[in-house]
Design a protein that fits this description.
This protein has 398 residues and is of the alpha+beta class. 24% of the residues lie in helices and 26% in strands. It has three domains: 1-66, no CATH class; 72-150, no CATH class; 161-392, no CATH class. It has helices at residues 12-26, 30-40, 46-55, 73-80, 159-168, 186-196, 221-236, 241-245, 270-278; strands at 90-92, 98-100, 113-114, 121-125, 128-132, 135-139, 142-145, 174-178, 181-185, 248-252, 256-258, 264-265, 286-296, 306-310, 316-318, 321-334, 348-353, 356-358, 362-364, 374-383, 390-392. A hairpin with a 5-residue loop joins strand 1 (90-92) and strand 2 (98-100). It is globular, with a radius of gyration of 23 Å. It binds zinc ion (ZN). Residues 115, 117-118, 120, 151-152, 155, 157-158 line the site of zinc ion.
Length: 398
């Protein structure tokens, strides 16, 4: 699934070729693609790239020596670890000048750069692309800590400080286990969600009801969900699951540790979430991150039938039948239309809860003569108990 990260071009010709690809893939004008490709290569504008590279045709540009550690962090961090911290969009240089990640390029400020709040050393991550729904999306540049670096206590960019605040208001959902280490009890979220409201049963509900004693307090559900939602926001501001994992561990029934990879699924891993849920290997709440595709309210005039669908990944070939394509649709049902107000197509959200799956069945593809003769649409669905189970995410802390 994960491809080795492609290095940004280092020649004018390379930048132009990259722009061609980007223009096609992102469906943007060539001129705009040239600007993006130039930024990917460490230049602020295409004009700069052209000026710098023209005179010394086909040599390395001056500033962006590509350090593989810093390129495509989402891919690398999972494999290599040791990259901590929230993305920041401002930093100060040694002369006290504040720089903004949108316009910064390596070498502009007097390095090493510093956190604008606590002065710990930070570095600049150049803009890069990552795959989302099989298309490259631009991840803007940002500042981050150096490996093994840490923000000072009370720095708003420190994860520790944020988790610490979170723990204090979480009614026991998140507890401190040692210095800089916290744990979140997923079982409390599950029990509160299931004990809270049987008022909106999902029509296609298949989940077995098991006898269970509730140790958590359903009355505290809003507090649990709000705390969990803040933890998810924090995760979304980090590059990878590993970044948050070292500070906030997840435990389920019997104090079994759950890895963040089994709890938090970005869009590219939706099918993995489906497999975990359908094979019943995951019974704890899980969080799915994705982009909102559509919001429909009051289906067939029923005020309790409101649904938000996430963008689907393309259909993939069925391992058992090469003529069949398999896709996955993620749907979130709300008992009131108002719960979905303020969320718009294109927004990035994380939805936390107990998901149900439906394997679907193969039906003729709507367009014949395409890649697949039949399509199977699998489904993951969730009925909201609280609006706060949906968290809108921002990728950079400002
Ligand atoms: Zn700081």
């Amino acid at each position: 699934m994960s491809k080795p990260p492609a290095l940004p071009p280092t020649t004018l010709r390379g930048i132009k070729l990259k722009a061609k690809t980007l223009s096609r893939e992102l469906n943007i004008p060539h001129s705009e693609a040239l600007e993006i490709a130039s930024r990917l290569s460490g230049y602020q504008k295409f004009q700069h790239a052209r000026r710098a590279l023209k005179s010394s045709s086909d040599v390395m540009p001056p500033s962006p020596k590509i350090d593989p550690e810093q390129n495509s962090p989402a891919e690398n961090s999972r494999a290599k670890g040791a990259r901590m911290g929230i993305k920041m969009n401002t930093a100060n240089d040694q002369n006290g000048v504040e720089w903004n990640a949108d316009t910064y390029q390596k070498g502009m400020g007097a390095e090493p750069l510093k956190c604008s709040h606590c002065c710990t050393a930070v570095t600049f991550n150049i803009p890069h692309t990552r795959e989302m729904y099989d298309k490259p999306v631009l991840v803007p540049g940002y500042f981050r800590l150096l490996p093994k670096g840490a923000h000072a206590a009370n720095c708003p960019f420190g994860v520790d400080d944020e988790v610490n605040k979170l723990a204090k208001s979480s009614e026991g959902l998140i507890e401190s286990i040692q210095q800089d280490k916290y744990r979140m009890r997923l079982v409390m979220i599950k029990e509160a969600l299931e004990g809270g409201t049987p008022k909106n049963p999902e029509p296609s509900g298949t989940r077995a009801q098991t006898g269970r004693t509730y140790t958590s307090n359903p009355g505290l559900l809003p507090a649990y969900i709000n705390s969990a939602s803040r933890a998810l926001k924090l995760r979304a501001m980090c590059e990878s699951n590993r970044d948050i994992e070292q500070h906030l561990e997840l435990i389920f029934e019997g104090n079994v540790k759950v890895s963040w990879d089994q709890f938090y699924f970005e869009s590219a891993r939706h099918m993995e979430a489906y497999h975990a849920i359908s094979q019943n290997s995951t019974q704890h709440p899980i969080a799915l991150e994705g982009q909102v595709k559509s919001i429909r309210t009051e289906l067939k005039g029923d005020t309790t039938k409101n649904v938000m669908n996430l963008q689907m990944n393309p259909f993939r070939i069925d391992g058992d039948d090469a003529n069949n394509g398999i896709g996955l649709e993620v749907s979130v049902w709300a008992p009131q239309g108002a719960w979905l107000r303020g969320i718009n197509p294109g927004d990035e959200v994380v939805v936390l809860g107990m998901w149900k799956c439906n394997p679907g069945s193969a039906s003729p593809a709507p367009i014949q003569g395409g890649r697949f003769m039949t399509l199977t649409k699998r489904r993951l669905s969730l009925s909201l108990v609280l609006k706060a189970q949906i968290t809108k995410v921002e990728s950079v802390l400002t």
